[in-house]
Amino acid sequence: MRLDPHRLTLWLALFATGAMYLALSPSYRQSVPAIKDKPWIGLPDSGMDASDFQLRELFNPDGQGGRRGDAFLDLAWTCGGFLDKHDARFPERYIAHVSDDAWNPRWGIIIDVEQDQLLFSIRSDDLLPPPSANDANTGDMVTIRPVTRLRIPKSRAEPIRQAWNNEALWHGPQKEINCNDGATLRLEACIHGRYAMRSRTCDRDAHQAAESLRTAFKALLPTPEPVHQRPVPGTTS
Q: Residue 37 and residue 75: Cα distance in Å, rounded?
């Protein structure tokens, strides 16, 4: 049977029209699953896998260890858990704890990704000095860690992204962590319920990359306000 070129052209035009109609149809568009945006940095390429919440729960069976109700400290115990899944509080969050050395101020930095913007929360991670004899009779005290918040376009924070997204710093396996006298650098991420962490405080191979990240943070972000204490109302003697 010989195909009529005119009839073949007509059928192709009808198929093309139908395909275009489906693509433009609201019901069809809604049925196509949305493609998630590419993460700003992403999870590490290799090394320890603590991305699943259930694995972290094995080390925290009573649901208490590490859960302080402190957003700067409890990411490992909330990412992918009940609150994260149902509240969707932070689909993409990064946290850094940094210092130049063990004797200089420490910063805590939270980065929440919101489309083309980054929401930074910065505070001091410093410990309070031990109370003096003059403080013995001042009553109960509460520790205050002021948090500075600012919103920055992703384009301005590109030096931070490039410094963080480094093989020695973020993507390589975890190495030694048993030291307390180094320049603090602890990095965490929670991306759509998947968790990762790297500590490079003792890692000499990551020293240069760590310095680049510290420099990028200090160039873009304000110095956090110092931590202080104030009396609990009604307890001062």
A: 22
